[in-house]
Amino acid sequence: MRRRFLLSVTITDLSGLVLSFAAANWLLLGSPYPWSVQLRGLAIGESVVPFGWILLGSGIAASLVSARTWVRSSPRPSYGRAFGIVAMTGSFAAIVIALVRPFYSNSLLGTTLAIWLGLAITHRALRRRRPWSEAMIVITEEKQLIDDLRNGAHADVVAVYDPSGEPPDAGALDGATLVVDLRPVLSDTMAQFVSSWDLAGLPVRSLVPTYEEHTGRMPIVHLAEGWELTAPVSRNDYANVKRALDVFLVTITAPLWLSLGAVLWAAVRLDSRGAAIYRQARVGKGGKLFVLYKFRTMIEDAERDGPQFATADDSRLTRTGRWLRRFRIDEVPQLWNVAKGDLSLVGPRPERPVFTAQFERTIPFYRYRHLVRPGVTGWAQVNYGYADGEASTVDKLTYDLFYVKHMSPWLDAQILGKSVWTVLSGFGAQ
Length: 430
Prior knowledge:
Shape: flat
Number of domains: 3
């Protein structure tokens, strides 16, 4: 069902691109048919048609990139993706035009993309009125996982059955997906029911990947000895190139973040007493300590009573610090940590040693978040926000471990996109 949804969105987008190109031709060149357009009495259709193919090819490429960044999470027709697809299409088309040098028209390109953006936003607005959802019958005894699924925007939990009990009536499924928790032992009748349902070619899914897809979280209760995390990390080829990508991105954006950093440094110094750059020990990959840099957002001696969790509305925040926290630009100096190799651009946020030691004693599998290099931003940051205690740290850990298991360039692109939106808008998880 998820694939059908993605395919329908992509086909609708590309159909909109074709219509937009025809409309732009009509508005600017007098005919909706590119092969028959004339300009100043000259037939230029043969030149316009290749330009249209370049736009369509760029649109297909942009749609594929957008679809891949959904990774294992549930797709949702968001307006941000509409802007992203249109922007990528324009960029890809510009690159092809620069390389091939065919006929092109800036006005035709701009008009096509503007009309297409309007159509993309319109069809997403219509789809969001009736969101995509997956009806499911779940066989499990884990109440918390069921509650999390029910809170998911695209999971419709129709009924829940005990693995050791009697199976549901076949008619009760009525087109729903059968989701099975493979951890507990199924009763004989339940096992026979699941087997017969699968052999009949009807949809049967395991609970763990279904839970991950609909929540973007790792079900910690289903981890055995941690090999479910260490094995994917050891086989992940992306980890070998991630460091090079970090250095490249930090280097090419250095003029921007260095200029912004200079302005923020002055703002922090003028607002309150104390150094503008705050240094703090954090735990990195493999449990190694490093010094993390950030702009100071709190008053001096904010921790005179000992280490404390930071919260979104912390009373210790300065006026400038509150603004920096809202847009998350207090973390600009951490790009220097990325250049040094302490951090990655994306990864689990590094924690302080005192809290790490505490959580490793009390929270199962907490140390597995150190399998990868920590990040300036992360999957937990864009989905959950601040953790101000052990209970919320456990919730946040489910997102961090999801990232550890599924780390990929597509997931990183999704996280960076959400983080940029938070910086530009001031809204979203912190």
